[in-house]
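Re: that chain you flagged

S.,

Sorry for the slow reply, it's been a week of failed gels. I finally had a moment to sit down with the sequence you sent. For the record, here it is as I used it:
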Amino acid sequence: WNDDTLRSSLEDNETTDSSSLTFHNLGDAVALNLFFSLRLNNSTHNLIELNLSNCQLSASSIAQLSPHPTLQKLYLQDNHLGDDGTELLASNNNWSPNVTLLNVARNRIGNVGAAALAERMMMPSNCNLRKLYVYENNIGDLGAEAFSVSCSKLYELYIWDNDYSEIGLSYLWSNKHDKLLLKTEGASTKL
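Prediction finished late last night. Pasting the structure tokens below so you have them in one place:
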């Protein structure tokens, strides 16, 4: 990707009036231009879904992501967010309160990033998250505990292949509500 192909893609979105944008392999530099364009471009006023999976994004580019008022689904899997990028994403300035689905799977997120997401989920006026994908990260027992306390509004939590032990797993299963679909270790169970 370069700035010209990005501009062309955004222009195509303007003419088709699409509510979904998908990009792959952008890299941080082009992603920064995308985030700037989304802030300025009124043609994306109906943006519902933004897919930036496998774009090689890091904390530095996520720091520039601004909330989009109509965005409901944000796919950021297979990037390099780590704890720093996840903390920035979870901050008030980088997350639209309308987002109901967030996929940050395979991003090297540990306990610190998990705790930041969990804290954000406990802000009732700023978070309407219903589906959270955090599988194949580095979340340990402390991160699992943080999610277990904060998942009261979630309907689906996908958290398999992380670094939590039986203790973390027991945290996840102990603080439950009857509508939560919890997917751990490849098995899904409605609690």
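What I noticed first: Helices lie at 3-16, 27-40, 59-62, 82-90, 111-121, 141-150, 166-174.

Talk soon,
D.
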